[in-house]
Amino acid sequence: MRHHLLLRVITKLLVGPIILFALYVQFHGDYSPGGGFQAGVIFAVAFILFGIVFGLTKVKQVFPPWIVHKLAALGVLIYAGTGIYSLMLGSTFLNYGAFTPAHPEHGQHWGILIVELGVGITVAAVMVAIYYAFAARPPVINDEEW
Amino acid sequence: MAGSTILPTLGIIDQLPLLTIAVPLVAGPLCVLFGNKHIAWVLAFVASLISFLFSAHMLLQVLDGDVLSYHLGGWAPPLGIEYRVDAANAFVLFLISGISTVILPYARKSVEHEIKKVSHTLFYCCYLLCFTGLLGVVVTGDAFNVFVFLEISSLSTYVLIAMGAERDRRALTSAYDYLILGTIGATFFVIGIGFLYIATGTLNMADLAVRLAGMEGNRTVQAGFAFIVVGMGLKAAIYPLHLWLPSAYTYASSVVTVFLAATATKAAIYVLLRFMFSVFQPEFVFETHILTFIIMPLAILAMFAASLIAAFQTDLKRLLAYSSVAQVGYMILGIGLATKISLSATIIHLFNHGITKAVLFMVVGAFVMQKGSSFAKNLNGLGKQMPWTCAAFVIGGLSLIGVPGTAGFISKWLLIDAALEEDLWWLALLIVMSSLLAVVYVWKIVEVLYMKQPEEGSVIGEVSISMLIPMWILTIACIYFGLNTELTLTSANVAADGLLGGGAQ
């Protein structure tokens, strides 16, 4: 990659805005098209692009696989945890209105924001994990292994 | 508080239908976050135990014909997702969570032996997700939600099967086969749901039942019905659609095989029952003649063909896998007869076969652990070296055949009863004859275990007590449910009543 100056410079320029755009899609999702899933994929694309241009070792230094795995689980927990929290407030699973009983709309706003955050984290982590799994795959399977 | 007037406060009892699913769902990612295999096992066991206690409580609640309904997110059905528990699904929930709770103590040693160390945490995570998916498929009252949970359980099942690659690389190809066939099945199922949605504009099962009444002649509905039956038939391994099952069960690690054999096909059979009898009215199902011309012949074919194939197998795991296909035949036969007794027979066989197969596969897991093989030729004379394990096999085998005093007898008796009630004496005869085939393959193994001489100089001991106790809990359950049928028969009867009497209304 040493010689591909253009690719390297443009990638470095793009990674930041891609992540920023992902965050925009994530948090503006309740007003405009978007939400956790799309944001997660865009977020992961920043790392995948970085990995394609600078190599798997470099991207793994930035975003170590063990953190990727934990984040994938954390996102699901955030989602399920929101539901459990509404259970503990004595309402049904994922009934966000229960968060602020005096003003259910506020609770619903918060609820969907947190749940979408969970979705975003998991999707981003899983996309990166899939990329790692494919990119790190050993080229051939030895005859002995069969 | 101002809010308490707007939102009624629910106690833990009201939350049971949801908590049964939510507890393992939360425990799964927690396993990964902790990243320690001992904590993962404890989490899996505790989550499974909690689910089991909740399911048992729900089963007792619905035994008098009550229906529990839970609205997710506070959105009322038919718009919102509804969890709906009646006797039919409470009984299946009870089976799945019960089996899982008994398997996990057994799993600890077996997983350590068969799965590579780094994957243990992920194994328990996948196991919990699969468990969640199976429970979810059963508990939900929303047709699309069934598909979602089906995918959760299927995807984790593919991973669990592929993990058997540590012992035999063929696990990878069998997991891949199952991936392809399972995806086709799930796709067919969701296409069917799509057709029903086009025709009725609803996804809630109870609402579907109401709106489908009087739409018997509608081609869209008929096509939807066909897609659903074939899709679920693939998942349930109904005879010509069973091709994924033998390899998947043979090459998966022992614990996975025990769990899948006892629960996965059962959940699919439950979905078939639910769709054929409470979403679609029984009149619709009769109208299409599918029961007489497709389901019944396939059931009889399964009982004989799969049992015959089983009799010629040399690998014990594969033998039992084919026997599972044959046993699915009995359950399908009950659906085919479509009377109240025959549906009771299907539901009770679902339960009894679940515990019986779990015992048998646990025994095979013990052989794999001590002897490193499940091939009959390597098991010569183990009856003396592993007396407890082999005794469990004999009792499980008797229950598989349907000898009086074991659980298997009750379900076959009911099935024969149902056949005689319809004056189908030839069918009753066929049931008995196919049971004789089960005698052939069970006896084949008993002969190897007890009549042959062990190899010279082989010193094999009994498996550890932590594996023997779960095995024997289920073995005793096999006998207990053969002698005391109060719980199983009542549940099955109430469930059949609910299914035939338009339980979805």
Describe what you observe in this structure:
The complex is a heterodimer of chains A (146) and B (505). By secondary structure, chain A is mainly α. Chain A has one domain (5-137). Helix content of chain A is 72%, strand content 0%. Chain A is built from five helices and no strands. Chain A has helices spanning 5-27, 36-54, 56-62, 65-88, 104-135. The two termini of chain A are 35 Å apart. The model of chain A has no long low-confidence stretch (mean pLDDT 88). With 505 residues, chain B is mostly helical. Chain B has one domain (12-500). Chain B has 21 helices and two strands. Chain B has helices spanning 3-6, 16-34, 37-62, 87-114, 120-139, 143-162, 170-200, 205-212, 219-236, 244-251, 254-279, 282-287, 290-311, 316-337, 340-371, 382-385, 387-401, 407-421, 425-450, 465-483, 486-500, and strands at 68-71, 82-85. Chain B has a two-stranded antiparallel ribbon. In chain B, helix 10 packs across helix 14 (316-337), helix 14 (316-337) packs antiparallel against helix 15 (340-371) and helix 15 packs antiparallel against helix 18 (407-421). Chain B is globular and about 70 Å long. The two termini of chain B are 36 Å apart. Mean pLDDT of chain B is 90; it is low at 1-6. The interface between A and B is medium-sized, with 27 and 28 residues.
Q: Percent of residues of chain A in beta strands?
A: under 5%
Helices and strands of chain A: which structural class?
mainly alpha
Write down the domain tally of chain A: 1
Helix content of chain A: over 70%
Oligomer: heterodimer
Instruction: Compute the average pLDDT of chain A.
Output: 88
Biggest beta-sheet profile of chain A: none
Runs of chain B in which pLDDT lies below 50 for 5 or more consecutive residues are 1-6
Strand line-up across the major sheet of chain B: 1-2
Range of strand content of chain B: under 5%
Tell me how many strands of chain A there are.
0
Total strands of chain B? 2
Radius of gyration of chain A: 19 Å
H/E element sequence of chain B: HHHEEHHHHHHHHHHHHHHHHHH
Which geometry of chain B do the CA atoms define? globular
Number of domains of chain B: 1
Give me the number of helical elements of chain A.
5
The rounded Rg of chain B comes to 22 Å
Low-confidence stretches of chain A: none
Straight-line N-to-C gap of chain A: 35 Å
Q: Helix fraction of chain B? A: over 70%
